[in-house]
Amino acid sequence: MRHSMREMFDEILLLFLSLSQDREIFSKIWWRGNGTSGSGNVILADIEMADWRNILSIVEKSTVGIKLIPIKKYLSEQIEHCKKSGDWERQSRFLERY
Q1: Is residue 66 part of a domain?
Q2: Least crowded by CB within 10 Å, which of 11, 17, 40, 83?
């Protein structure tokens, strides 16, 4: 959905949230797709983090309100995980050069 119906992604995500606020169900859906790819000096975790931040920004547009706190927490955890992975990736690349 994220790639083939890009123009409808926001609407579909918001529709899902209006129907279910279950963190477990939300976390089982591949909102970002099934992988990350890049070339050159790209930090893959940064790409993934940008995707999660975009998803969080869409979730924040929802009018469901307080019921979305568990999903927002899940998204924040994913962003934090990507941040740590990106830092590790940068450190590894730096150490490989020296």
Answers
A1: yes
A2: 40
The pTM score is 0.85
Query: How far, in Å, CA of 42 to CA of 28, rounded?
Result: 27
pLDDT tens by residue, 17-37:
999 999 999 999 999 876 666
Is 28 part of a structural domain of the chain?
yes
What DSSP assignment string belongs to 28-65?
A: HS-TT-S-----TT--HHHHHHHHHHHHHHHHTT-S-G
End-to-end CA distance of the chain: 43
Please report whether residue 51 resides in a domain. Answer: yes
Burial pattern 18-47, b for ≥16 Cβ within 10 A else e, equals eeebebeebeeeebbeeeeeeeeeebebbe
Q: Which of 63 and 1 is assigned the larger pLDDT?
A: 63
